[in-house]
Amino acid sequence: MSRDLPEFGTPQMLEDPFPFFEDKRAQCPVFSVPSRNVHIVTRREDIEFVALHPEIFSNKGRASLETFPGQRYKTMPDLASMDGEEHREVRKAHMAFVSPKRLREMRPAMEAEAHRLIDLFIDQKEIDFIPSFAKPFPAWVMGSALLDLPREMHAQLDIWAVNYFDLFDKNLHRGGTNGPDRRLIDSYVEFTNYCGDLTVSHRENPRDTPLSEFVNTAKSDGELYSIDEMTCFVRLLVVGAQTSTNLMAQALVDAIRLGPQLDITDRRETQKLLDESLRLDGPATYGPRVCTQDVELGGVHLPAGSRIMLAWQSGNRDEATFENPDQLCPNREKLAKQLGYGLGAHRCIGAPLAQLEGEVALQALFGRFKTIRLSDKNDFRHDTSLTSMRNLLALHLELEAA
Ligand code: HEM
Prior knowledge:
The protein is of the alpha+beta class.
């Protein structure tokens, strides 16, 4: 290594992975992490090649499929752990959840919820944006707008989802829960049982909600998905939505930094800001894949069965694609090449929902406050307990109501 940089996966590296990745892209763009039995892919060009060749780089087997004692519903492959035709068909079913029609219908209720949350701190001069808005807003979208659950369940879903990420992190590419953590397993069992019971209830008593439509989607042969399968699909959706919190917080930081350069009332500009925030500092870190055959990637020979992780954040700062990659520039060329939502067959299905949440949030906030400033209290540190996600720990704002 040319510079004195921290090792992969240390808290220091996770806090600021960008110098580490810059070095790797230049020196050894596909590098091995033996302790995790994985190669990390850092250049955007290589990431694109992998994401667009699922026949060589499979999503099957990317995480363990253990069913733990106490689970009333078996662990089955979810959307992110499937390939080919099966993946295409299951993905189509997921679209009921986030169809353009559903999103259009949801928008007024989302706006009302954003304003309800703002009402709770409109008279305060200072807030931490994460617990005041960035956490509860997407939690409401998932819990109420999509799953039709009472408010008291939202915090619980959040705890289950965070624990799920932690468990996923621990067993990622290790073929099992190495030294299983009882607390995380208990949480996974409870979470799975809850999603299973919810699935059963929407099968027995369908309602006009995105969840009911999803749960009762038939396969091309006319059969319904099994309850076990659907349970795991629902669980992944809840977990996937976790990332919206950080996009919202990061996009607000970036919007404040841009100041009057940004016209927040312009929908296109807001969408570009959200994409650029994701490019510069998105929450999703790695996309795991398994090689189905011997392959050469970034000058490295990977035998069949090799496990790799696509470093989205590294690809997003690749100087070969993005000019001045460390600068915030929503009008940059090639913004459409940002990888914050992944790429190819597995690109995030929640992207339109996350973009809508971000737009509604930013427009509501800037509409209600004359000034929103970043407090000097901010150290912009991240939660480094997970390798698979990067979230701001706090975001202190100084506010002046309009
Ligand atoms: C800012 C918010 C979000 C970010 C940055 C994000 C990021 C990502 C990324 C990078 C992938 C691709 C993973 C891979 O290829 O290995 C992905 C997939 C996925 N995301 Fe998101 N996501 C976000 C919001 C959401 C939301 C709100 C939902 C649920 C409604 C969701 C559900 C999913 C699902 C189900 C997949 C798997 C898709 C597939 O395998 O076909 N995501 N997400």
